[in-house]
Amino acid sequence: MVDIVDHYICFLFQLKIHHMRLQRSLGACKFGIINYFDALKLQERLASDRKSGKILDTILSLQHPPTYTLGKRRTDHNLLVSEADLKTMGAELHYTERGGDITFHGPRQAILYPIVSLRDIGCGARNYVEGLESVMIEVASFYGVNAHAGKTGETGVWVGDRKIGAIGVRISSGITSHGLAFNIDPDLSYFKHIVPCGIPDKGVTSLKRETEMELPPDEVIHEQLIHCFAKVFRFSDIQWKTQ
Amino acid sequence: MALKLWASSTANALRISCSSSRPAFPAFSIFRSFSSVIEGLKYTGSHEWVKQEGSVATVGITDHAQGHLGEVVFVELPESGAAVAKGSSFGAVESVKATSDVNSPVSGEVIEINTRLTETPGLINSSPYEDGWMIKVRPSDPSEVKSLMGSKEYTKFCEEEDAH
Lengths: 243, 164
Hints:
heterodimer, A: alpha/beta, BirA Bifunctional Protein, domain 2, 7 helices, 27% strand, globular, B: CATH 2.40.50.100, 6-stranded antiparallel sheet, 5 helices
């Protein structure tokens, strides 16, 4: 009996501290379409600034021109065409240090690159990634799309067995880079040239394909993703910067 | 026991400066079971451990770290003979589509790497202090371990971090 009361008091105290906590702002930088390499260099600079405390937690919102990327494991057996063919298609190929397998980025796919301190947001890798999944699941739900996280070992966001959102993250000195890619209405035929995320028997899809509602301009969906991110990771406010 | 829990929570709460509580998902219990910490090892604030045996230092990541990572699917290690520096990255682990850098607690030369991790990266999860060791180093400066945390300090460090 005494235990229950003590636990309750402990709980009330934690609640009070929760409300007393200091503000945690999220800096949000919105871009249009930027080249993968440029975005990578920007992330490296921001991650270094975040590590040294020069800047607060920051999130980049953007899209890429047609780009294929590989993760640290270099699983290029999942690229089904030659690099020469990619050039003909007008697509670039990049090798990165992020987790995850091969994927495609292109116009009409919303990209978020959060550069945040895991310690400050109170996360380890696993629950950070789960948080990214829940951001995409929530935004999909705004459009009546019932998305869900993958089974263990299949990180990402699915509608049925079709993938609508992908995740690939890098954590260095406790600071995140790379992030999530959410298909609004990209040209899905680009995915034919890869085994997406190394999973051969599942397809890809987009919000456009899955929803019955009319979609607003991409910018609105980008902002919704950022708002959900701020909510999920308990930021008190967003400081918007447009580039 | 409950009063002690309340007292330590209060102490932790008063020390919280600018960090928030956990995110809204998934529901992590306040009373989660604590990860194992081994006596006789030294620990870093980035959750690596080091075991000194004579002139060889064995390095890996802690139980706390592997629990927060999720299932490890890939491990990147340096080559034998490579130099490592205290506080700098020597390799990485991948789990749940996230690669996390692993930092060396000591400076020196890598004399052996755990090649079993190529085939069985999950050893880091199932046996973080034994079969999941990552590298063995010949330390260049034996005094570096003095500034690392002992098991009691590290346990407290993890409790405070998880209370955020």
